[in-house]
Amino acid sequence: MHKDKLDLLLQLEAQRQLEQLKAQQVDEVLLLMRLTPQQRSIEQKHLEELTEFNAVWDERVTQVVGHGKALEDGMLARHREEKAAKLQDIAVQFPAEAKPSSELLNMISIGEKMVKMRRYDEAESVKKKVGEMKEKARAEWEKRRKEKVDAQMATLVSRQQVELESLRHRVKMAVEEQRKLRSKELEKYGARFGYRL
């Protein structure tokens, strides 16, 4: 969303500058019509230099934006890799099934002893209790696991979002710095020819 917004703002700014340049060129053409041939030659050179100046600075801004886009693409790829690695770490840290508790293992052992002693009714009741304990332990584990996984992923996503926003801000500031430098250079250029740009 922010990327689209930045792209839109950059396009609008480029369009505004292009319109401003066209209007300025029309004014200069009208001025050229009223000048002597020598003055026209000077003004023509000035117009050529101004066009070249604009092309150079447009290219600089395009390079900064392109470099920012490449950095952002690289960061997004790294973020995808980090998420995949984090999911693998989580699978190791928090397996899908919890280790059985000592109480559960004890009940299973009791059930097995009951079967060996041929006390099948008691073994059946222990087996039901073991099933209930397993189900309860599984539900508790899944709940704890989900909370831990969600917390870790939320932290990762939040950190990645901050990194991405920081990069976008740095690119925006670099573009703005190029625009300021362009304005200063344009003022110097205009002063050299006695124009107010």
Number of strands: 0
User: Hey, roughly how much beta strand do the residues contain?
Assistant: under 5%
Shape, per Cα inertia axes = rod-shaped
Low-confidence stretches: none
Using only CA atoms, what is the Rg?
35 Å
How would you describe this structure to a colleague?
The mean pLDDT is 83. The protein is mainly α. Helix 2 (37-93) packs antiparallel against helix 4 (120-193) and helix 3 runs antiparallel to helix 4. The protein starts with a helix and ends with a helix. The protein has one domain (2-193). The protein contains four helices and no strands. The chain has helices at 2-33, 37-93, 102-116, 120-193. The longest helix is centred in the last third of the chain and has 74 residues, at 120-193. The radius of gyration is 35 Å and the shape is rod-shaped.
Please sum up the structure shown.
This protein has 197 residues and is mostly helical. It contains four helices and no strands. Helices cover 90% and strands 0% of the residues.
Characteristics:
single chain, 197 residues, mainly alpha, 0% strand, rod-shaped
What is the topology?
Layout (H helix, E strand, L loop, with lengths): L1 H32 L3 H57 L8 H15 L3 H74 L4
